[in-house]
Sequence to fold (444 residues):
Amino acid sequence: MRDARGNPVSTLSGAALAATEHALWRMMSFYGTPLDDLAAARAADPQWLLPPLMECGFLLSLTEPSVWPQATRILNACEPLARTANDRERAHFAALKALLAGDWTGACTAWEALLLQHPRDALALQWAHLFDFYRGDGTSLRQRVARVLPEWDAGDALRPYVLGLYAFGLEENQLYAQAEATGREALASARVPWAMHAVAHVMEMQGHYAQGSAWLAHWHPDWTDGNGFQGHLGWHHALFALEALDANAALQCFDAHLESSPEQITLQRLDAAALLWRMHLLAMPTGTRWQALASGWPRPVHEAGRYPFNDVHALLALIGSGDLPAARAWAASVTERAELAHGHARDVARDVGLPLMRGLLAFAEERFDTAVQTLYPLRAHAQRFGGSHAQRDLIDQTVLAAAARGGGHSAGRALLNERRLAKPVTPLTEHWAARVAAATRPRP
Ligand SMILES: [Fe+2]
Fold:
């Protein structure tokens, strides 16, 4: 049998295949989770390798430490099923083994090999795109999708979601007009939160905060309708508010989409920490939100050092909650554990994650000179840390805040120059410009 895009599958069960198709749509659209569909597929054909692989890959794509044991159990149980699987499914199995072992680059290489053989393998494309994002591989965010997009039929039900991936890749490569057009094309035929997101990024990077806020308000019913991307798009909505220095609107977004709860996962906590940190830099009151975030953030020491991006945001939560001893202890755990990690994670921790933590701790300890001297040089290779340009702007804003507190006028001036040429001067830029300038005036 073949799936809806012509890829070979080793099941003979139409019910199992239909359930995996629905799961795939959920994974690409973020509406609900694919777990119930995958359970149905497994029930319909317990001998088929692909449904448990999809479940494992979905869990790992969350970068959520609490689900790693479950993902490990699922993958270990796949070994007997691999004997009756086809080559494509076994290649996915190998990619997920690499992913589970922490070899994210190896997993992306395996998915690339799959895409050369099967350009409409949506699973390989979706997962490679997410891990290109997590690895900060901006070139692949655009080019990996470009290498397969022309192979997708105009009428394919999943093509709008592939366009959404491409729109984001274009945006991360500063091709804003093309990114916006591609995102809008995707949205012309389907509800594609990744495309809504890509266009929001286009507006964020160009300083079009009022337009961006209106864009997300327009699509609000669609990205809040049981969508797993809700927290992140709520974060983007709040960023537009902060660009206008509207603290109340930013907090409304936080409370609607990022408030701490037992169901919250790390990906959502990252955005909560990133938003509260920006507000902290601006000395905007945030009530008890930091404390709620930090106390609900599980940080098992044995999981420290797995992914520097997550580790740094956990540090922000501890600093923001006012618990500096816990923040220092967490940074020490991450430093120790990062040396035990493999390849990419260890290298990125050494080169970006750990120095970034040291710079943030220096800022928290009001050693603003050290904060600027530590954070400023990181900007040159911070992309390896993962996330988007908009997420990594947190580093720039921390340097500006440190410069405004006397930590280094020349670095602050340089960043403001860069900002003024990248986008129109916004209230946020005016705010930092005034404070960096004030920090250089001799005190009476
Ligand atoms: Fe984003």
About this structure: The pocket of fe (ii) ion is lined by residues 197, 201, 232, 236, 388, 390 (CB under 6 Å).
